[in-house]
């Protein structure tokens, strides 16, 4: 860390802010390793107002769970807007183009976080009766002296606290979220499960009422339409179905509107109190005799459901509600695909509700099982939160799934189309949690509609006419990951000819044959750079090395030789020519020199990104270890700032993704103090170099973790975590070019390297090498067909499958001086370089509820 860094506020591991510190001191860094507890935000500390946890199913639009348990935002109407709240805010410094206006894509919600966006009325209320007392409370922030929010994505726990009442009230809110099951995780529904516990000595009657306004066709409805609420019921549930119709009876044209659709609110049970037309301002806990209610679109129409329970002293009741929606008319101009995938199975919101209620026990059980498996870890609780919660981006309007099954995404909400390869290749989470989505995208898009005759991959699919060099390399690496996250070789075999073409395209960008790509081409910093650029050269080397490994599996010795020749030359020349003795640089084009934009002698955040990617897919080194460590240490020395304030004041022009008083890692710094370090003087892209973009920061943290720089990895990740503390902004919305930015899902990579996790499904290979708490370690894992927990305690290792199945034949752990391996199945083993590799005599399939235990002596 640079000497002389100024004051910074660093939150402690709870939710309170601690006094200013000049530097994170040794005791604070040690505290980062503590297991700690769930991050809990409190009303009493004004920490609820910005919370917006996506709880609407992956690729189903955006519905936020607020800090007080109410749902808000409701970006489900296919408006395709840029940002969760399109707006322009004033800022105190110039941003990118020299102006002082910040758009959604520039970080408007970082400067002025959104809150209280409620296009429709929704809420819950509680009536309590005991003795001769009756109390009615809305379940919202204004009505309770204290509310706590536990930020455990994908299931949040909210507690409504009032010591004067004879009950405690708890809400668990979520949409079904089950790794490896993208369909059941992609339901347009929110489940709200309330528990009421009687803390007193007398019975309490508790009635919970939920209501939902009918706002179907929220933008397009007019005088020709009317909204209709109808009582519906199924096996063990009742509710209100909310839709809209044209008064003349012909709905055919109107039903094509982008915001056309339906809602449903329901409660589990056979004695649900239903009311299709709850009176405005009247929280009624009595049933209605009306089975249908109709109102003009200019009049408010709320449907409600309620459940009634007697809670005996010391007992707890649980009552489950759900809200579903169906707005399937999604369309993007010029894109091959439209409609929403969920509409293939469900014709309306009532059909969604029927499926959810019929399968409620399983959906809730498996979702809770995942939550409990994920957070039952020895790694710091805050780290488990930050490395995982960014996958909630899938449950926002950043990500979509067309009726054809095609995955399609922006970079951030409504900004920069086409599932951009040079951004999405950073996002490690999706390929590990929902690998089927990534396999399909590689095959259908990158190796399909986006593939050019020469092997180049259009970096925004059909929305672009050229490849991006870093996106191309990252996509080859993703293909290797997708192969590893497959149960067999079918994906690789089916796509091998196209994979070779994509790899040869990379190799052909090396014009002088030295293994270092030097063809001017677009990259993620939105410019065409000339010369030999360390981060791109290294990324291409890693990609071609991955292709060599795939070629070996395909018994394609000739192509493996081509790839290995390239990587050997590239590694040798990169280390000789692009390492300046401290870090890796950008060697200018011999003709153009520094007349075009580039990073040149600066210290660039992605300079050893190729090696970082290699660790994500279990590859050997592609860049020398000592030089790589030197580069990472230089990044921490020059680019990490405990307080970014003084730096951005001296280097204006970047977007405000970190502000004075916050820590972060600057994209590019100028250790040699050159007058024009980036070649050109006035390009708008120069602003990028002075920013803290969390996706890049997570990538570096993941790499530092893999290289043993755990202090630095945790400090950097904690800086990001603290920037998104709920006292300041939404913890679930890491912002770059618009909200819920895809690159932030690089955070999952830090979890991967913290576990030292390696996996190759077709080979039946799994490995762990914990980066911390090595003698008493526990963490979840996800494989091609199953997930569960891995535990290491002393010399004992346990793999426990919780869901699906796991087929293994080879395991690898860090151990030395191994004399024997004790387990329930016949094995052989070999020891090398501080690791023991254990070979089972034949493949072993573990199913849910089964485990494999090994003792290494």
TrEMBL record:
GO terms for biological process: carbohydrate metabolic process. It holds the Pfam family Glyco_hydr_116N. Residues 52-362 form the Glycosyl-hydrolase family 116 N-terminal domain. Transmembrane segments: none annotated. Coiled coil: none annotated. One of its GO terms (molecular function) is hydrolase activity, hydrolyzing O-glycosyl compounds. It comes from the Bacteria. Residues 470-748 form the Glycosyl-hydrolase family 116 catalytic region domain. Gene3D superfamilies: 1.50.10.10. This is Uncharacterized protein, contains GBA2_N and DUF608 domains. It comes from Chitinophaga jiangningensis.
């Amino acid at each position: 860390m640079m000497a002389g860094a100024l004051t910074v506020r660093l939150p402690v591991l709870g939710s309170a802010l601690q006094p200013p510190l000049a530097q994170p001191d040794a005791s604070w860094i040690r505290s980062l390793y503590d297991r700690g507890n769930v991050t809990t935000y409190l009303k009493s500390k004004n920490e609820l107002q910005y919370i917006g946890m996506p709880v609407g199913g992956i690729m189903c639009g955006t519905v936020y769970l607020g800090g007080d348990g109410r749902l808000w935002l409701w970006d489900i109407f296919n408006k395709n807007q840029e940002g969760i709240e399109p707006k322009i805010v004033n800022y105190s410094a110039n941003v990118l183009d020299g102006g002082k206006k910040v758009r959604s894509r520039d970080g408007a919600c970082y400067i002025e976080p959104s809150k209280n966006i409620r296009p429709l009325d929704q809420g819950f209320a509680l009536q309590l009766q005991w003795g001769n007392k009756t109390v009615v409370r809305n379940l919202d922030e204004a009505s309770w002296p204290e509310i706590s929010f536990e930020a455990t994505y994908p299931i949040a726990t909210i507690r409504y606290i009032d010591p004067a009442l004879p009950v405690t009230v708890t809400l668990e809110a979520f949409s079904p979220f089950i790794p490896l099951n993208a369909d059941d995780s992609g339901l347009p529904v929110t489940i709200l499960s309330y528990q009421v516990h009687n803390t007193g000595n007398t019975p309490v009657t508790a009635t919970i009422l939920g209501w939902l306004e009918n706002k179907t066709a929220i933008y397009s409805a007019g005088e020709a339409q009317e909204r209709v609420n109808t009582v519906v019921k199924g096996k063990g549930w009742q509710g209100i179905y909310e839709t809209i119709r044209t008064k003349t009876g012909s709905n055919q044209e109107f039903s094509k509107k982008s915001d056309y659709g339906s809602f449903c609110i329901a409660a589990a049970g056979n004695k649900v109190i239903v009311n299709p037309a709850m009176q405005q301002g009247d929280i009624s806990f009595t049933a209605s005799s009306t089975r249908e209610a109709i109102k003009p679109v200019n009049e408010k129409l709320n449907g409600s459901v309620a459940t009634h329970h007697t809670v005996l002293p010391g007992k707890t009741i649980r009552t489950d509600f759900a809200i579903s929606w169906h707005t399937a008319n999604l369309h993007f101009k010029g894109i091959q695909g439209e409609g929403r995938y969920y509409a293939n199975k469900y014709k309306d919101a009532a059909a969604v509700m029927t499926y959810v209620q019929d399968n409620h026990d399983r959906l809730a059980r498996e979702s809770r099982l995942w939550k409990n498996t994920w957070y039952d870890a020895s790694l710091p609780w805050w780290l488990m939160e930050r490395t995982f919660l960014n996958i909630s981006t899938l449950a926002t309007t950043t990500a979509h799934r067309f009726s054809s099954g095609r995955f399609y995404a922006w970079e951030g909400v409504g900004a920069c189309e086409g599932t951009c390869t040079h951004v999405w290749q950073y996002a490690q989470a999706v390929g590990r949690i929902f690998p089927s989505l990534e396999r399909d995208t590689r095959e259908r898009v990158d190796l399909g509609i986006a593939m050019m005759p020469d092997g180049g991959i259009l970096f925004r699919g059909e929305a672009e006419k050229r490849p991006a060099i870093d996106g191309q390399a990252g996509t080859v690496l993703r293909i290797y990951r997708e192969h590893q996250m497959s149960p067999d070789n079918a994906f690789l075999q089916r796509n091998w000819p196209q994979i070779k073409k994509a790899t040869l395209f990379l190799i052909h960008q090396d014009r002088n044959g030295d293994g270092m790509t030097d063809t001017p081409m677009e990259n993620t910093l939105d410019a065409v750079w000339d010369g030999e650029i360390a981060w791109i050269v290294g990324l291409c080397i890693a990609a071609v090395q991955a292709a060599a490994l795939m070629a070996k599996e395909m018994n394609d010795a000739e192509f493996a030789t081509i790839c290995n020749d390239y990587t050997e030359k590239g590694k040798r020349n990169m280390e000789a020519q692009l390492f300046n003795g401290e870090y890796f640089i950008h060697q200018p084009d011999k003709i153009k020199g520094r007349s075009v934009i580039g990073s040149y002698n600066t210290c660039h955040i992605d300079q050893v990104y190729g090696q970082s990617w290699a660790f994500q897919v279990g590859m050997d080194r592609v860049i020398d270890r000592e030089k790589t460590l030197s580069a990472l240490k230089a990044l921490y020395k020059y680019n990490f700032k405990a307080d970014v304030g003084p730096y951005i004041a001296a280097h204006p022009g970047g977007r405000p993704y970190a502000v004075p008083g916050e820590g972060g890692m600057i994209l590019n710094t100028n250790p040699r103090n050159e007058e024009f370090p980036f070649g050109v003087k006035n390009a708008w892209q120069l602003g990028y170099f002075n920013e803290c973009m969390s996706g890049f920061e997570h990538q570096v943290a993941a790499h530092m973790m893999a290289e043993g720089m755990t202090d630095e990895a945790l400090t950097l990740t904690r800086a990001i975590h603290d920037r998104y503390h709920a006292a300041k902004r939404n913890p679930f919305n890491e912002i770059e070019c618009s909200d819920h930015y895809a690159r932030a899902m690089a955070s999952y990579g830090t979890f991967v390297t913290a576990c030292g996790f390696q996996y190759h499904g077709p080979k039946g290979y799994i490995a762990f090498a914990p980066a911390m708490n090595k003698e008493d370690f526990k963490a979840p894992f996800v494989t091609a067909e199953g997930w569960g927990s891995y535990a290491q305690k002393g010399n004992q290792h346990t793999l426990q499958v919780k869901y699906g199945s796991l087929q293994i034949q080879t395991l690898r752990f860090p151990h030395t001086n191994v004399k024997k391996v004790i387990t329930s199945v016949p094995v052989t083993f070999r020891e090398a370089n501080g690791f023991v590799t254990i070979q089972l005599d034949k493949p072993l399939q573990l199913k849910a509820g089964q485990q494999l235990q090994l003792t290494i002596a």
